[in-house]
Design a protein that fits this description.
Belongs to the band 7/mec-2 family. It holds the Pfam family Band_7. Keywords: Membrane, Transmembrane, Transmembrane helix. This is Zgc:112408. The protein is α+β, with helices and mostly antiparallel strands. The protein is 56% helix and 21% strand. The strands form three sheets. Strands 3-2-5 form a three-stranded antiparallel sheet. The chain has a three-stranded antiparallel sheet with strand order 6-7-8. The protein has a two-stranded antiparallel sheet with strand order 1-4. The chain starts with a helix and ends with a helix.
């Protein structure tokens, strides 16, 4: 398919380059008559013969249906014959347009609405005039069709996670398709992916359940770590009974600092055992 596009582009370019050749006798007569008319009415026709093209524009001039010199003219000022020449200006600046939201059925049978932005510019003004009737409208229609075809073979998760890959794939397809038209697609961006309301609610419920499960797992892990810390503390206290008494004193100090109250606590068992003897 790409080879056929390149061959078609080469044939069109050859036709354009050779279109100014082979003028008939009638064509020469009309050109001479038009030139004489310009000379006779020179002070008035000078305003119709001189054309100006800006730096970012190119002019494609047709003389009796054939492109003059086989290429676009500009920038600057040039001369045209008012009776035999027609001119079309082409803007070479980068043009951007937004693809309207397209309803797309994904591979997993989910309907989504996707819109995108395409940036392109005309690199061959002559091809853009000769090869296609309306380069701008054709590019927009092709972009909408490419968007539906490129995303229709993907699942919903792939569209949501691989947006850059989808945009690059669309850019390559449009670049190859618009090459015979003298247009170069520079960038494609997927702007927004809208899901049905029911699907949004289902995904929100799934995400909430996932968060709750993670919270429960974290709480369980915290309980396990706390149990292990208590077990280690119990082992330390069992090895040193005096540590328990120190813990008693620390707890009493904290309680006394928080509120004024009377506290009754038992005497150490070691002291009572000395009197029992």
């Amino acid at each position: 398919m790409r080879d056929s596009m390149r061959e078609e582009s080469m044939r069109t370019s050859e036709n354009v380059n050779s279109s100014h050749r082979g003028l008939s006798a009638c064509d020469y007569v009309l050109i001479i008559i038009s030139s004489l008319l310009v000379l006779v009415t020179f002070p008035l026709t000078i305003w119709f013969c001189i054309k100006m093209v800006n730096e970012y524009e190119r002019a494609v001039i047709f003389r009796l249906g054939r492109i003059v010199s086989g290429r676009a003219k500009g920038p600057g000022i040039f001369f045209v014959l008012p009776c035999t020449d027609t001119m079309r200006k082409m803007d070479l600046r980068t043009i951007s347009f937004q693809i309207p939201p397209q309803e797309i059925l994904t591979r997993d049978s989910v309907t989504v609405s996707v819109d995108a932005v395409v940036y392109y510019r005309i690199v061959e003004p002559t091809m853009a005039v000769v090869s296609v009737e309306n380069a701008d409208a054709s590019t927009k229609l092709l972009a909408m069709t490419t968007l539906r075809n490129a995303l229709g073979i993907k699942t919903l998760s792939e569209i949501l996670t691989d947006r850059e890959e989808m945009a690059d794939r669309m850019e390559n397809i449009l670049l190859e398709a618009t090459r015979p038209w003298g247009i170069r697609v520079e960038r494609v961006e997927l702007k927004d992916v809208r899901l049905p309301l029911e699907l949004q609610r289902a995904m929100a419920a799934e995400a909430e359940a996932t968060r709750e499960a993670r919270a429960k797992v974290a709480a369980a892990e915290g309980e396990v770590q706390a149990s292990r810390a208590l077990r280690e503390a119990a082992q330390v206290i069992s090895e040193a009974p005096s540590a328990l008494q120190l813990r008693y004193l620390q707890t009493l100090n904290q309680i006394a600092a928080e509120s004024n109250s009377t506290i009754v606590f038992p005497l150490p068992m070691e002291l009572l055992s000395a009197f029992s003897r």
